[in-house]
Amino acid sequence: MLEFRIIENAQHEDKLVSTVRNLVKEKVDLEKASIPDDVYGIKRFSRIWNKLEFHAESGCLTVNWGEKRSIVLPKSLVPTYLKTAHENGHGGVHRTKEQLNWAWWPDQMTHIREFVASCSTCLKFKGLDMQKGKPDRQVLYRAKAPWEIMYIDFIQLPRSQTGKNYALTVQCGFSRHFAVYPTARCRAIDAARALMRHILLYDFPKIVSSDQGKHFRNELMEELCKLLGIKQNLHVAF
Ligand SMILES: [Zn+2]
Q1: What is the model's pLDDT at position 155?
Q2: 154: CA distance to ligand 1 center in Å?
């Protein structure tokens, strides 16, 4: 029950989920609802809109699938539960999803896929240590707090079935948390997109640090960083 209370509280604190809660409470049709300008992503609830209902005992907003139901997990709690579910045995996408069947959030499958693909323990286990041939990680400045500095880099990979040939790697300078985002190519737009995915999944860093490769040193990256209030640090390649 304690966990239900934590999730219910977080649902109230989340701008998007609390808006959805109010609309469901008032039985408003999503098509006819007036959504405040600062609430983003409500369309991603449209597929499950008529399955949304409150769990009587806990007051949590849930998705009723018929035989079972899932709790709507607000964004702030996703990283923790995603990590716990995957690290309980480091299973693949399917097994990680199974452990998270009790929860639902927009883009759940995408997030699970990305999390599993970028788990450094799994990568090491498969003998795919992405940092092989890279300079010693120790040379990277050790940040004093999470999200203070984020190191990004492109690596080339064998082509995947979906035609992805590269990946943007993102590493937190504090926790050394390491994520990999497969991309078709390694242009500025690929770097920007992958970086945005990482930021939306986790948080905004203060500094993004990379080498001076064309895909990092360009107007798009400069504008993106400026817009997000991130300082861009371009160092010479190691
Ligand atoms: Zn893993």
Answers
A1: 86
A2: 21
Q: Are residues 149 and 197 in the same domain?
A: yes
Residue 64 pLDDT exceeds 80: yes
Residue ranges making up the domain that contains 94? 2-117
Q: How does residue 125 score in pLDDT terms, banded at 50, 70 and 90?
A: low
Q: How far, in Å, CA of 157 to CA of 176, rounded?
A: 21
Ligand 1 centroid–CA 95 distance in Å is: 11
The whole-angstrom separation of Cα 217 and Cα 220 is 9
SS (H, E, C) 90-124: CCCHHHHHHHCCCEECCCHHHHHHHHHHCCHHHHH
How many angstroms is it from 115 CA to the middle of ligand 1? 8
DSSP secondary structure code for residue 140 in this structure = S
Q: What's the CATH number where 163 sits? A: 3.30.420.10
Neighbours of ion ligand 1 (CB under 5 A): 90, 119, 121-122
Report the pLDDT averaged over residues 203-221: 91
Whole-number average pLDDT of the chain:
87
